[in-house]
Amino acid sequence: MNIQVLGCSGGLSDKNGSTCIQIGDYALIDAGTGLSSLTIEAMRKIRYIVLTHSHMDHIAALPLFLSNMFENVDHQVQVFAQAHTIETLKTNIFNDNIWPDFTQFPSAEAPIVEFIEIAPGDTFTLASPEQQNAQIHVFAVDHTVPTMGVSVRMQNQHFVFSSDTTEGPIFDNALAEVSKLAPVDTLMLECSFTNNKHDLAVHTKHMTPKMLKGTLTRMQQMPKNLWISHLKPSSGDALVAEVLALAKEFQNEIDVVLLQQS
Q: Which of 223, 221, 226 is nearest to 246 (CA)?
């Protein structure tokens, strides 16, 4: 499985773009500013985008990306998202005020983008003309807006991305259910705030290292690899230090990687 993390920051930084994960050379999970690390030629190979939710750090590059798709592209880009996300994008972004309505360009009959509504629990295939297909399963997580985690099964590998979530029964149950699809090889979890910002994490429905540790200790089946992402740049070195301390606690059980740069 070829998974490329183009961006994994929880905000705006000179070192790392916000969330965007590439599957092969033909699909993306989210469209944060990390998408800008692709060349125009690489962008034009993208056929599918799965959006986990409507927040800016996960959709910021989508409008400009679609602007690059008019020339020398013989396919439509399919964007999979929940109804809330699609409605938010159409109302607030693709409204001919902030950005053109690309569901009508270059024509209403053959637009460059198609929004496809999906819901937690759905499973579907992203087909590639040249590479192995990716089996996608989406599941509900616990964030401030309707948000989905994403399971990717491809080439006998299982990659799971939590997107933005806080700890608790909703997320614990989601991880338990997705693990039944196949053993998880790599789990990519968010950790946004330092432990002393617990109340802020609860209010915004994100994670601290302590909350992340609780989630891991409650898992019935641990992944082989844990990728920790979505660190808020404003949290600085203090959050990095807390995450590294957490990684050390679990170093004998799983391989832990702190994602800081694309």
A: 226
Q: State which residues of the chain have pLDDT below 70.
A: 260-262
Rg (CA), the chain: 18
Each domain of the chain, given as residue ranges in start order, spans 3-258
pLDDT tens digits, one per residue of 176-234:
999 999 999 999 999 999 999 999 999 999 999 999 999 999 999 999 999 999 999 98
Q: What CATH number has the domain spanning 3-258?
A: 3.60.15.10
- Report pLDDT for 262: 41
